[in-house]
Amino acid sequence: MIRSKAQYKEYLMADQKARGVRIQGIKSKIKDSLYPTPTWKFQKRLRKLEYYTNCKKGIFSKLYIKYLTYRYRKLSVRLSFSIPLNVFGPGLCILHYGTIVVNSRARIGKNCRMEVCVNIGASGGKVDAPILGDNVYIGPGAKIYGGIRLGNNIAIAANSSVNKTFEEDNILIGGSPAKKIKDFDIKTIIKHL
Angle at CA 81, nearest 5°, toward 75 and 86? Predict the structure, then answer.
């Protein structure tokens, strides 16, 4: 959760590094303004809204938060994202736009890399949502649900249904229902680690 301007900048830098976005010179700033990457634009809006919501309390800040919320929701609908504030740690990388639904009670650590059609939510009317560790890759179409915990350095295969806890680190899980497939080095997928 972002609690200061310094932390806001740290989160943005970590997200930028996770996405492989270079530090911008004048050429790349012009290119980014003419042809923005929608998922990176979304992530910047997410972090800015988190910062203002968590850190700013004045009357003018509240009005600005309403404006930021409007812009954030508009882009969320366009990209088919339902991602609440203060769920993801630094180093988030959303690779493609398309349906992504995340429960507001879910907690995901740093360096999460996520593909399209991911669902992270509660199960069967219960309020408990998943808690994921650091350095997690979530493949396309993966569903993670229930009051479960996942360890660090875990890769979740495409179209998997994860509904039980995997606290072991450095593994690949997959299938429906998910099971451990093998030991795995997450650095093969999340390159910036």
Answer: 95
